[in-house]
Structures are given as structure tokens and as C-alpha cells.
Amino acid sequence: MTGEWGYIIAAYAVTWLGIGGYALRLERLTRRAEQEYEAARGAQRAGPAGRQS
Amino acid sequence: MTEAVMERAATSGAVPAVPPRRPLLAAVTLLTLVGAELFSVLTSPPDRDMGNLEKILYIHVPCAWMAMTASLFVFLASVGYLWKREERYDMIAAASAEAGTLFTALTVILGSIWARPTWGTWWTWDARLTSTAVLLLIYLGYLALRAATDDVDRRARWSAAVGILGAINAGIVYESVVWWRTIHQIQSSPSSMGIMYTWGLRLNAIAMLLVLVYFITNRYRSFCLIRATEMMAEDAVLGRRAP
User: Fold this and answer.
1) For residue B19, how far is the Cα from the chain centroid?
2) CA distances from B88 to A8, B28, B72, B82, B201 (A)
3) Interval B15-31: pLDDT, tens
4) How far apart are CA A8 and CA B202, in angstroms?
5) Most distant CA pair in chain B: distance in Å?
6) Which residue from B39, B69, B78, B224 lies 20 to 30 Å from B153 (Cα-Cα)?
């Protein structure tokens, strides 16, 4: 079958782009959520005085 | 602003504990995926009819299985939410739906890449293809609905209804090749395939299952973090102190 490897390479490339792209997006999202969570926890521990400063 | 926060705080339940990071799962998933793909691509002989294009099926078929598995998780978590009204079930359903959207999209694209040289067309309105496209639309609708609704309880209830609808459609996707005999082949079984093809599929299915589990657990963790942060902000507005 002529050119069949082009289709095979395209299929594996799409799979890795899809899975890798979503994994990276998820990693960025989780890191940002972690930072915001830690900041909110710090502010909550500090109480109203800590939040004002 | 304060009234809206108070209303939301009154309607939503307790936030589930934030699960830990799982770096070992990430490493095992990556290694298994690379190993399974290398094994299947390098060891499987060309098929009598489709030649080397059978190598696409080692990723297309497991992606389709994971799309169905994700819809089962969405279904179970959606029923769990409607029954128990615990927010963690809604988060599991949403995390599963996101991963399900990815796997369904990959299934459609990979199937299309495989179909072009074997069937001579990128797309045909075959029952299996059409019902899979409908599943993708339901998943996208599910995500759009969540993005458009701020109220936690209403968003969870509406999402659960769409999630259950998606799972019903996933059943139709599975049976479509039996109910409507069109161009897509019926389900294969180990008895209808050579041992190398069977093992290639099994290993890639395990690898994709690990990918699915990794995506769902990681996304669930981020949902917990976001919700916990929101609730701490609500506490701050309401003047509640940390315990």
C-alpha cells in the first residue's frame, strides 16, 4: 500500500499531540490551582488582619 | 456580591479533601504508553488485507474503548450525584467527561485517518461513525453547559442529566455495528485475531486506561483545589475563620 506509513505517522502524531497537549494543559491548570489554594490558605490562617496587610 | 456568595455557600455541600499528587502514576503511565506503542508497531506483522495500516488500530480501538469507559464513569458519578448530592461525584463526572471528550475526538480523527486509505473516504455516515460523532457532540455540550452555569448545584444537576444521556448514547455506539450492518466492521474478539494483534491491543488498552485514570485523578484534584479556594474566599467574605 503506497504511502501507508504517512497515515500511520499522522495517526500516532495526532495521538501524542492530543494526549500530550491535554496533559500539559492539565499540569498548568493544576499548578495554578495549587498556587491559588496555598495563597488562600495563607490568607485564611492570617485572619482579617493578615488579609488587610 | 456577598448575597450571591452566601446563597452559594448555603446550597453547596462540604468540599472533598484534596487528593495528593501522583508522580509515580504519571511515570508508569508514560512508560507503559511508550512501551505498548513500540511493541505493537515493531512486532505486529502487516495484515493480509490492510497491510501496515493495522498499526493505526492499536491506538484507534483503545481510544474508542476509553471513550466508552469514560462515559461509564460519567454515568456512575452522575447517578451518584443525583442520589447522594455530594459534590465530589459531580467533580468525578466532570473530570471523566473532559477525558472522554479527548478520547472520543481522538477516536473520530484516528478512524478517519485509517478510513481514507482503506475505505477510500475520510468520512461516511455509517451508524458507528455517526453515533460516535453524536457522543462527541454530547461531551462538548456537557462541557459547554458547565462553562455556562455558575450555580454549583444547578450545574451539577443539569450536567448529570446530560452525562446520563451520553452514557445511553455510548451504549448505542457499542451496539450500532450489530443493529445496523453498514461499512464499519463488528466487534473483534481474541478468537477472530492473531496472537500478536491481540497482545498489541491489550497492551495499548492497558496503557490508555492508565492515561484515562491519570487524567481523571489529576483533573479531579484540580477541581478540589479550585473549589476549596472558592470556599475559603466565601469564608473570608462571610467573616468565618479557619478552624
Assistant:
1) 20
2) 40, 26, 16, 12, 33
3) 678 888 899 999 999 99
4) 19
5) 72
6) B69
Rg over CA atoms, chain A: 22
Q: What is the pLDDT of residues B119-166, one digit of tens each?
A: 999 999 999 999 999 999 999 999 999 999 888 899 999 999 999 999
Quote the percentage of chain B above a pLDDT of 90: 68
Q: Are B81 and B160 in contact (CB under 8 A)?
A: yes
pLDDT of residue B242: 53
Distance from the Cα of A7 to chain B's closest Cα (Å) equals 6
Query: Nearest by CB to A51, which of B106, B222, B236?
Result: B236
Q: Is A40 on the interface with B (CB under 8 A)?
A: yes
Cβ(A31)–Cβ(A25) under 8 Å?
Answer: no
Is-contact B225 A33, C-beta < 8 A? yes
CA–CA distance, B232 with B169 (Å, rounded to integer): 39
Residues facing residue B47 across a β-bridge: B51
